Amino acid sequence: MNIIRKFMDSGSKQEVVMIPSGEFDLLRSRKSPKAALECIYNDSTLSIRKTAQYSYELVVCKVADDTEVSTGDDNEEYSDDSVSATSAQSKKDDEWTFKLGFLGFYKKWNDQGDLTFIWNNTIGDEEDEMVQFVVSPEVSLKDVAQFTKTVYRCEYEARFKKPGISANEKEINAVAAESEALAREQCDDLAERLQNLKMEEPQPTPASTAEDEEEVEEENFEDAREVQVPVARKLKKNPPKAVPKGKQLILLKASLLVFDPMEEKFMSQEQDVDVLVIETGDYEYWLAVQGEPTKLGTDLSPSINPTFDFVESGFIFNYTFNQITLSFMLKFTDVGACTQFQSCISKCLWMSLNKRPWGEVPGDQKQFILNFSAAVEKDLNKILDEDEREARIKEEEEERHEREQEEEEEESDSEDEDHSRRIISSESFENDSFQRPLSSGNKSLTVAYKNDRSYVVRDNKIGVFKTDRDGMDFVAALKNISDLEGKRINPDDPMLYMEDRNLILRDEKDKNKLFKMDLERGKVVEEWGTGEKDVVQYGPAKKFDQLTAEQTVLGVSPRGLFKIDPRINTKNKVVQDESKDYATNTKFSSLGTTEDGYIAVGSEKGDVRLYDRLGIRAKTAIPSLGQPIRHVTVSANGKWLLCTCDSSLLLMDLTVKTGKNAGTLGFTKSFPASENIKTYVLKISPEHASYISTSTKKPINFSKAYFNTGINQEEQTIVTSSGPFAISWSLKKILRHQRKPYTMRRYDSNIIEDNFQFGTDRNVIVALKDNVSMSKTKSFKVPDKQVLLPDVSLFYNDDDDDYN
């Protein structure tokens, strides 16, 4: 029986959807002197009530006659000795109501294995209070999922004053992510109190001192300073996690190890644990580890940074609790068990992303999805025989050249380090009416090819910066950007155009129009319509077109690929006979081109299509590996494809290795069905990710990744960022099977975007939230605890903590 009930009353207030059974609790922050958890109703309903157009309430109503407050099975955290005024009044009224909009609503599994809704107590009498609704076990997971989606659609309507049915999945997911982040800021603090765990607060960095606060009217751009903080001891325990109800997909035995950030190695925690994967709902999966005494569990998603180490027959993942992220390894008895587990995880990640059953995947795609991890590990343990002999001679010559250059640069290292920390912006980027508290910060970085300029978008302004031997200097600010009618534009996703003399922009609120800005005049001079096509992303028809007078550009919509020609004498500038539209929603998200005009298109589904020209079917379709693709770029010669996902980068060799088309590229010829595309999955190791996530309180989330780029230059380095960390990968190290082929540099604030200076991989231009900097890649270091998280005390308890 579907126990979510829909009502269509004729009254002024209409119940939209309801869950008829669950426990309702009040959660207090540690600032409160009262009990952390107070049960309000042992049996209650949770519903959404429509009060007006685009206006909804979340309503909790008492069902049973609750005359007493639960004591939580005698747990000292459950108390009725101090009931808040709000809760007491609500018990009399038998109803709590919360206005939807910015409620911070999200769902989670609690430590007892019960599905729980949590949100901010907006009617509470104490600061930072929250409430939770523990769903009754008799409610189906499908009904819970339906209720959750309805909440977020109602939140969307309340926020944007638009019908929720018109919102696409991406917009609803954005509301869900924002709601969860809003609530978790308070919930993490509450969880500390409930679990009785202590965590030291990070010391303020120089960027957040009182002196900086006095400079609030100045928007200076500066490089971060690294911070040293004292260290504590004793690794914190993980809270217990019960196994949620659902279908068991796999059960294996393994040894459990945890990464000790002080020792910087994995330490044995328990020898014999049960490892389970549970299907908890429609394409929702749970990873559980059950031992004595260890019990932990987490949603199975890319955010846990799942990584397989087939040499150790191990599965490594991150586990977050109370703002601490630990790295665990499950070491299986043999490679066979590890491979079996990898197959299960790969299937679950694919189904979770695509919302389709595994049986619908074609056979050849199944092999690619299931085998790529093993194939990557095999490739990482040997260099291709046919490449090794030639590469060794070339590498030795390059290394000798690098050593000579490093010796020449040693004398200037100190000067370079000082330079990379200097302020390189100008107050003229801002004005009296635009001060730091009102700004959302920098949004993007665009690096010129033709000249030495870089462009940083901030609100409806664009800052222009110049790079030279001495670093970067502020040049000018293009302010108050507007369209041809004088209406304000909030520029988004800028692209340099026609010998770097123009920028192509779009307004973040207008999906069907592009704007051409003349950089010399600092004004929009043309507007290009795209008809009914929503522009998701756009780029040059050939990789180096911005160095030429080429006028056409490419664009992708959620279901197609098209060319724009501004010379067309209509408002709609789309070239109709050079477009490719699909009947289904392909969810295209990004595109990249080679110097010969070959095209790669990535999607939110995680798949990639390769074209040799517009208007025809893709020559090659690369299946999804379980993460949406946010950005793609291609090497100039078309050999390498680089895809940016949230927590990983995909580096693909597009050269066909076997069959009659051997030696050609996947853009021009299809790969044989028996050949898997050689794919390297580039991740921050879970050990390093635990440092980063604990420091930032957020999971790994990569910015757009780029190759170094230059005319007749070979791509050999990759740069991206996550939070305040700039990260560089060496292609040589990747191909030499080094397990951690990356270096990092930490800044004081989050990096919005970073990219190489054109023509070199030695300098990286970095746009921080409020500053801009250029650093040498030599300043990037092999990551360790000093680079990643100077305050490793966040991982540890004090010596007198109770570990019994």
TrEMBL record:
Domain Vacuolar import/degradation Vid27 C-terminal: 441-791
Biased composition (Acidic residues): 210-221, 405-417
SUPFAM superfamilies: Tricorn protease domain 2 (SSF69322)
Species of origin: Zygosaccharomyces rouxii (strain ATCC 2623 / CBS 732 / NBRC 1130 / NCYC 568 / NRRL Y-229)
InterPro entries, A to Z: Vid27 (IPR040458), VID27_C (IPR013863), Vid27_N (IPR040979), Vid27_PH (IPR040768), WD40/YVTN_repeat-like_dom_sf (IPR015943)
Any one of the GO CC terms: cytoplasm
Annotated spans, Disordered: 196-225, 388-421
Top-level division of the source organism's lineage: Eukaryota
Residues annotated as domain Vid27 N-terminal: 1-173
Pfam short name (any one): VID27_N
Domain Vid27 PH-like: 249-352
Compositional bias ranges of the Basic and acidic residues kind: 388-404
Name of the protein: ZYRO0C10560p
